[in-house]
Amino acid sequence: LPAQGAALRLCSTRVAQEGINKPVLDRIIRVDHAGEYGANRIYAGQMAVLGRSSVGPIIQQMWNQEKDHLKKFSELMVAYRVRPTVLLPFWNVAGFVLGAGSALLGKKGAMACTVAVEESISEHYNNQIRTLVEEDPEIYKELLQVIKQFRDDEREHHDIGIEHDAEATPAYSVLKTAIQLGCKAAIFLSERI
Protein backbone atom coordinates (compact mmCIF):
# COMPACT_ATOMS: atom_id res chain seq x y z
CA LEU A 1 0.00 0.00 0.00
CA PRO A 2 1.22 3.52 -0.71
CA ALA A 3 2.42 5.73 2.10
CA GLN A 4 0.10 8.38 3.55
CA GLY A 5 -1.26 10.58 0.81
CA ALA A 6 0.88 8.92 -1.92
CA ALA A 7 -0.96 8.03 -5.10
CA LEU A 8 -1.17 4.39 -6.07
CA ARG A 9 0.60 3.90 -9.37
CA LEU A 10 -0.54 1.03 -11.53
CA CYS A 11 1.99 -0.87 -13.60
CA SER A 12 1.48 -1.02 -17.32
CA THR A 13 2.10 -3.90 -19.66
CA ARG A 14 2.92 -1.38 -22.35
CA VAL A 15 6.29 -1.76 -24.04
CA ALA A 16 8.61 1.23 -24.41
CA GLN A 17 8.14 2.46 -27.95
CA GLU A 18 11.12 4.71 -28.59
CA GLY A 19 12.08 4.83 -32.24
CA ILE A 20 9.47 2.37 -33.45
CA ASN A 21 7.36 3.00 -36.51
CA LYS A 22 3.97 2.54 -34.82
CA PRO A 23 1.90 2.17 -38.04
CA VAL A 24 4.25 -0.55 -39.33
CA LEU A 25 4.30 -2.32 -35.98
CA ASP A 26 0.51 -2.13 -35.63
CA ARG A 27 -0.01 -3.53 -39.13
CA ILE A 28 2.41 -6.42 -38.54
CA ILE A 29 1.06 -7.45 -35.16
CA ARG A 30 -2.59 -7.06 -36.25
CA VAL A 31 -2.23 -9.18 -39.37
CA ASP A 32 -0.07 -11.82 -37.68
CA HIS A 33 -2.58 -12.15 -34.83
CA ALA A 34 -5.37 -12.53 -37.41
CA GLY A 35 -3.34 -15.08 -39.37
CA GLU A 36 -2.58 -17.20 -36.32
CA TYR A 37 -6.21 -16.94 -35.27
CA GLY A 38 -7.28 -18.14 -38.72
CA ALA A 39 -4.73 -20.98 -38.63
CA ASN A 40 -6.13 -22.13 -35.30
CA ARG A 41 -9.61 -22.22 -36.79
CA ILE A 42 -8.36 -24.15 -39.86
CA TYR A 43 -6.78 -26.82 -37.65
CA ALA A 44 -9.92 -26.91 -35.46
CA GLY A 45 -11.94 -27.65 -38.60
CA GLN A 46 -9.51 -30.33 -39.72
CA MET A 47 -9.55 -31.95 -36.28
CA ALA A 48 -13.36 -31.93 -36.24
CA VAL A 49 -13.29 -34.12 -39.35
CA LEU A 50 -10.01 -36.06 -39.10
CA GLY A 51 -9.21 -35.94 -35.38
CA ARG A 52 -9.74 -39.67 -34.88
CA SER A 53 -8.01 -40.70 -38.09
CA SER A 54 -4.39 -41.74 -38.53
CA VAL A 55 -3.46 -38.15 -39.41
CA GLY A 56 -5.18 -36.70 -36.30
CA PRO A 57 -2.05 -36.65 -34.11
CA ILE A 58 -0.07 -34.88 -36.84
CA ILE A 59 -2.76 -32.22 -37.24
CA GLN A 60 -2.94 -31.85 -33.45
CA GLN A 61 0.84 -31.34 -33.24
CA MET A 62 0.70 -28.54 -35.83
CA TRP A 63 -2.37 -27.04 -34.14
CA ASN A 64 -0.55 -26.96 -30.79
CA GLN A 65 2.21 -24.85 -32.35
CA GLU A 66 -0.39 -22.52 -33.87
CA LYS A 67 -1.98 -22.13 -30.42
CA ASP A 68 1.42 -21.01 -29.08
CA HIS A 69 1.77 -18.55 -31.98
CA LEU A 70 -1.67 -17.08 -31.30
CA LYS A 71 -0.90 -16.75 -27.61
CA LYS A 72 2.30 -14.85 -28.35
CA PHE A 73 0.64 -12.45 -30.80
CA SER A 74 -2.21 -11.90 -28.33
CA GLU A 75 0.41 -10.90 -25.75
CA LEU A 76 2.12 -8.58 -28.25
CA MET A 77 -1.20 -6.93 -29.06
CA VAL A 78 -1.64 -6.03 -25.40
CA ALA A 79 1.99 -5.00 -24.91
CA TYR A 80 2.00 -2.69 -27.94
CA ARG A 81 -1.67 -1.69 -27.64
CA VAL A 82 -2.61 -2.87 -31.10
CA ARG A 83 -6.27 -3.33 -31.90
CA PRO A 84 -7.29 -6.60 -33.54
CA THR A 85 -8.78 -6.68 -37.00
CA VAL A 86 -12.54 -6.23 -37.04
CA LEU A 87 -12.64 -9.26 -39.34
CA LEU A 88 -11.94 -11.83 -36.57
CA PRO A 89 -15.57 -13.06 -36.52
CA PHE A 90 -15.35 -13.67 -40.27
CA TRP A 91 -11.95 -15.44 -39.96
CA ASN A 92 -13.47 -17.56 -37.18
CA VAL A 93 -16.05 -19.01 -39.56
CA ALA A 94 -13.97 -18.93 -42.76
CA GLY A 95 -11.01 -20.67 -41.12
CA PHE A 96 -13.13 -23.46 -39.67
CA VAL A 97 -14.99 -23.97 -42.95
CA LEU A 98 -11.70 -24.10 -44.88
CA GLY A 99 -10.24 -26.60 -42.42
CA ALA A 100 -13.29 -28.84 -42.30
CA GLY A 101 -13.91 -28.54 -46.04
CA SER A 102 -10.36 -29.53 -46.93
CA ALA A 103 -10.51 -32.40 -44.43
CA LEU A 104 -13.72 -33.67 -46.04
CA LEU A 105 -11.55 -34.27 -49.13
CA GLY A 106 -9.57 -36.67 -46.91
CA LYS A 107 -6.10 -36.66 -45.45
CA LYS A 108 -4.55 -35.47 -48.71
CA GLY A 109 -7.01 -32.59 -48.97
CA ALA A 110 -6.24 -31.43 -45.44
CA MET A 111 -2.53 -31.61 -46.16
CA ALA A 112 -2.98 -29.71 -49.44
CA CYS A 113 -4.69 -26.95 -47.45
CA THR A 114 -1.82 -26.96 -44.95
CA VAL A 115 0.77 -26.68 -47.72
CA ALA A 116 -1.06 -23.82 -49.42
CA VAL A 117 -1.64 -21.83 -46.23
CA GLU A 118 1.79 -22.40 -44.71
CA GLU A 119 3.59 -21.53 -47.94
CA SER A 120 1.66 -18.24 -48.09
CA ILE A 121 2.34 -17.47 -44.44
CA SER A 122 6.07 -18.27 -44.73
CA GLU A 123 6.32 -15.85 -47.65
CA HIS A 124 4.34 -13.25 -45.69
CA TYR A 125 6.64 -13.62 -42.66
CA ASN A 126 9.69 -13.26 -44.93
CA ASN A 127 8.28 -9.98 -46.26
CA GLN A 128 7.78 -8.76 -42.70
CA ILE A 129 11.32 -9.73 -41.76
CA ARG A 130 12.64 -7.68 -44.68
CA THR A 131 10.49 -4.71 -43.65
CA LEU A 132 11.68 -4.79 -40.03
CA VAL A 133 15.33 -5.21 -41.02
CA GLU A 134 15.02 -2.20 -43.33
CA GLU A 135 13.39 -0.19 -40.52
CA ASP A 136 15.94 -1.05 -37.80
CA PRO A 137 16.92 -4.62 -36.89
CA GLU A 138 18.06 -3.58 -33.40
CA ILE A 139 14.82 -1.83 -32.41
CA TYR A 140 12.75 -4.78 -33.66
CA LYS A 141 15.15 -7.49 -32.49
CA GLU A 142 12.66 -9.35 -30.28
CA LEU A 143 9.83 -9.19 -32.82
CA LEU A 144 12.21 -10.38 -35.54
CA GLN A 145 13.13 -13.41 -33.41
CA VAL A 146 9.46 -14.25 -32.89
CA ILE A 147 8.59 -13.91 -36.58
CA LYS A 148 11.65 -15.93 -37.69
CA GLN A 149 10.79 -18.75 -35.27
CA PHE A 150 7.16 -18.81 -36.35
CA ARG A 151 8.16 -18.72 -40.03
CA ASP A 152 10.35 -21.76 -39.42
CA ASP A 153 7.44 -23.53 -37.70
CA GLU A 154 5.21 -22.74 -40.70
CA ARG A 155 7.84 -24.12 -43.07
CA GLU A 156 7.92 -27.29 -40.99
CA HIS A 157 4.13 -27.58 -41.31
CA HIS A 158 4.45 -27.08 -45.08
CA ASP A 159 6.99 -29.89 -45.26
CA ILE A 160 4.79 -32.17 -43.15
CA GLY A 161 1.97 -31.56 -45.63
CA ILE A 162 4.21 -32.47 -48.56
CA GLU A 163 5.42 -35.62 -46.74
CA HIS A 164 1.79 -36.65 -46.21
CA ASP A 165 0.82 -36.64 -49.90
CA ALA A 166 -0.64 -33.13 -50.26
CA GLU A 167 0.42 -33.06 -53.91
CA ALA A 168 -1.54 -36.25 -54.62
CA THR A 169 -4.83 -34.45 -53.95
CA PRO A 170 -7.07 -34.34 -57.03
CA ALA A 171 -6.85 -30.88 -58.65
CA TYR A 172 -4.03 -30.01 -56.22
CA SER A 173 -2.74 -27.00 -58.16
CA VAL A 174 -6.24 -25.52 -58.50
CA LEU A 175 -6.99 -26.04 -54.81
CA LYS A 176 -3.61 -24.64 -53.76
CA THR A 177 -3.99 -21.55 -55.98
CA ALA A 178 -7.51 -20.85 -54.70
CA ILE A 179 -6.45 -21.16 -51.05
CA GLN A 180 -3.40 -18.96 -51.60
CA LEU A 181 -5.51 -16.26 -53.27
CA GLY A 182 -7.76 -16.36 -50.21
CA CYS A 183 -4.73 -16.06 -47.94
CA LYS A 184 -3.45 -13.02 -49.86
CA ALA A 185 -6.86 -11.35 -49.60
CA ALA A 186 -7.05 -12.14 -45.88
CA ILE A 187 -3.59 -10.67 -45.31
CA PHE A 188 -4.40 -7.52 -47.29
CA LEU A 189 -7.68 -6.94 -45.44
CA SER A 190 -6.43 -7.82 -41.95
CA GLU A 191 -3.50 -5.42 -42.21
CA ARG A 192 -5.88 -2.54 -42.89
CA ILE A 193 -9.24 -3.21 -41.28
UniProtKB/TrEMBL annotation:
<protein>
    <submittedName>
        <fullName>COQ7 protein</fullName>
    </submittedName>
</protein>
<dbReference type="GO" id="GO:0046872">
    <property type="term" value="F:metal ion binding"/>
</dbReference>
<dbReference type="InterPro" id="IPR009078">
    <property type="entry name" value="Ferritin-like_SF"/>
</dbReference>
<dbReference type="GO" id="GO:2000377">
    <property type="term" value="P:regulation of reactive oxygen species metabolic process"/>
</dbReference>
<keyword id="KW-0408">Iron</keyword>
<keyword id="KW-0479">Metal-binding</keyword>
<dbReference type="GO" id="GO:0008682">
    <property type="term" value="F:3-demethoxyubiquinol 3-hydroxylase activity"/>
</dbReference>
<keyword id="KW-0472">Membrane</keyword>
<dbReference type="GO" id="GO:0006744">
    <property type="term" value="P:ubiquinone biosynthetic process"/>
</dbReference>
<dbReference type="InterPro" id="IPR011566">
    <property type="entry name" value="Ubq_synth_Coq7"/>
</dbReference>
<dbReference type="GO" id="GO:0005634">
    <property type="term" value="C:nucleus"/>
</dbReference>
<dbReference type="GO" id="GO:0008340">
    <property type="term" value="P:determination of adult lifespan"/>
</dbReference>
<keyword id="KW-0831">Ubiquinone biosynthesis</keyword>
<dbReference type="InterPro" id="IPR012347">
    <property type="entry name" value="Ferritin-like"/>
</dbReference>
<dbReference type="Pfam" id="PF03232">
    <property type="entry name" value="COQ7"/>
</dbReference>
<comment type="pathway">
    <text>Cofactor biosynthesis; ubiquinone biosynthesis.</text>
</comment>
<keyword id="KW-0560">Oxidoreductase</keyword>
<dbReference type="GO" id="GO:0005743">
    <property type="term" value="C:mitochondrial inner membrane"/>
</dbReference>
<keyword id="KW-0503">Monooxygenase</keyword>
<dbReference type="GO" id="GO:0010468">
    <property type="term" value="P:regulation of gene expression"/>
</dbReference>
